[in-house]
Amino acid sequence: MIAGSGVNLPLMRKLSATYETSRLPGKIVIPDSIGSAGAIKAALDGAIDLGLTSRPLQEREKAAGLKQIQYARSAVAFAAHPSVPVDSISVADLLEIYSGAKRQWPDGQTIAPQLMYKGDSVNAILVSQIKGFSSAINEAWHNKYWQVHYNDFSMAEAIAKLEGSIGFTDSSFVYLAQGKMKLLQLEGVAPTADNILRGAYHLEREMYFIYRDPLEPSAIAFLDYVFSPEGRRIIQAAQAIPVARLANGNR
């Protein structure tokens, strides 16, 4: 049983499906998103074998007995419905869109911004890296301008279905959605793994497994697969960046 942050799930389901067909018989169960907080609670309770988070553990969570293994990094990206007539968005436009000052795309289509709830970890990344974004989304939350989502699947579904929509998620989530959403460049820079690695794109977040010892042999076998050359290729194909197991102190 593997459960947690929704942004990890498309990639984790891809990894588990390939693992099941090429490795051992059996079934890896990955339910719908329970969030990073839900994964932490479930891992502490022993309800799941591996949890998935999109942030590192806090010291108090480590003190409670949890351990973490980072397995990937991914670009935090702005994505839009395929009907949106732009391929790149500027910071100035983003601030106007989320504050409610800009309401139409260049073709006259109504802009439909999507927000994550205040406690989601992606908000902290955007606020820390985009000057002025904090004021824009705080105004949006306060005035209840736009639809607020409580998991990444809800955000992705809205972007994919609602013409004129724009929101933010991980680039790997968009790549694995196979054309249902459009990735937007930010100030002309694409949210790709290569651009993160060369320092051209600065919005990114980390993906972790969390667990309590002792791990079941089946969980260890799956972790071995994720960090194997085959697992790394799957992560890279989703435009995420695999993390070396030993490089970050993983077991």
Keywords, separated by commas or semicolons:
251 residues, alpha/beta, D-Maltodextrin-Binding Protein, domain 2, 2 domains, 10-stranded mixed β-sheet, globular
Structural notes for this entry:
The protein folds into two domains: about 1-75 and about 205-240, D-Maltodextrin-Binding Protein, domain 2 (3-Layer(aba) Sandwich); about 75-195, D-Maltodextrin-Binding Protein, domain 2. It starts with a strand and ends in a 9-residue tail after the last strand. The relative contact order is 0.22. Strands 1, 2, 3, 4, 5, 6, 7, 8, 9 and 10 form a ten-stranded mixed β-sheet that branches. Helices cover about 40% and strands about 20% of the residues. The mean pLDDT is about 90. The chain has helices at about 10-20, 35-45, 60-65, 90-100, 120-130, 135-145, 150-160, 170-175, 195, 215-225, 230-235; strands at about 1-5, 50-55, 65-80, 90, 110-115, 145-150, 165-170, 180-185, 205-210, 240. The longest helix has 14 residues, at about 10-20. It is of the alpha/beta class. The protein contains eleven helices and ten strands.
